[in-house]
Amino acid sequence: MVPNVSMAVDVRTLEVAQGNQDSGASAHCRRVAALAMELSRVAGFPSSTPGLLRLCNLVDQQFESLQFEYKDTDSILDEIREFAPFEGFDAALVEHFRGLRSRLPEQIRRGEGLPVEAGTARQIFGALGQEREYEVHELAAVAVKDPVVAASLIRVANSSLYSAASRFAGAGPAIAYIGTVEARKVMLAAVLRPLFTSAGLMRLWNHSVSAAQFCSALAAKTERVAEDEGLMLGLIHDFGSLAVHFAPRESRDAYTRLVERGCPVTYGERLIFGCDHGEIGAEILSNWNFSDEMIEAVRFHHQPERSEGPLTAFIYLVEFWSGLDEDLPSFHRVEECLRRAGLTLEALAQTGTRNSALKTLRSLT
Ligand SMILES: [Fe+2]
Ligand SMILES: [Fe+2]
Question: Which residues surround ligand 2, an ion (CB under 5 A)?
């Protein structure tokens, strides 16, 4: 049932009544209720205000149709304002949606508001971010500068998966033992992890490692993405979510309420910050020595129709397969991305994880 103002639905009753969260209609009702509650809280009027649910319903429908045609949040609100005389709500109500908006501070968009660990991560990604073969001495020179990275290499080398007669005590021999390809992966993961965990974002970190493992395995099934490229993309694809976590308190709280009441994270981000975590992450990573293709894939990984690149389609599919529901479901996007990435649903279903080094690292930490 779609909320309708003429029915004078109380949004709290509506929210409680939505028992079947799997249904698309129920999810739609939850989002409409979430929007109405947030708007009434910000504007200070009751949730039963005439036209409020009708307006929120229109906003949700517009967000649902973004999969077919991109519009920025301001354009959506401009269009909806034009509908006011025909839909029977006060056009001034639309402006309360704009009142929810809070642009992330420039400092955060440049990645400067992140924890101190970001500085180290940036340096190591700068040194190891290029897709090429590395020599043992190159990796060792980077590893010795960071005790966390060196310790992670030694732990992986000493783990049961890489059992050795005598245990390693230095980063150089550990790299030589596990190989430069695996060592580089461990180093990149090791330097990112403290960034997430110091912010209390363990769930996001676990998701990033899982995505990296999945990307790496899935890349082997298509010639359009290199395995190392896929792994790196998985690790950093949701980097923008980290920045959202450090947004000013008031806007972050509004965003959290929307998400807790049933809006996908990208939906809440577009409403509150005017862009999603992909766009935010891309802005930060553009200062981190990443390739243009990688930055574009991160920027549009929740808006794959805005990019021609196979990497974008690829990471969209990984997000879809992760089941975290970061965006509204879209079979249209899934079909299109499978075609562009040269993959099938069966390939997704059959892909397991096979990156033993990262798996080991996660089990150790
Ligand atoms: Fe993700
Ligand atoms: Fe994402």
Answer: 238, 326
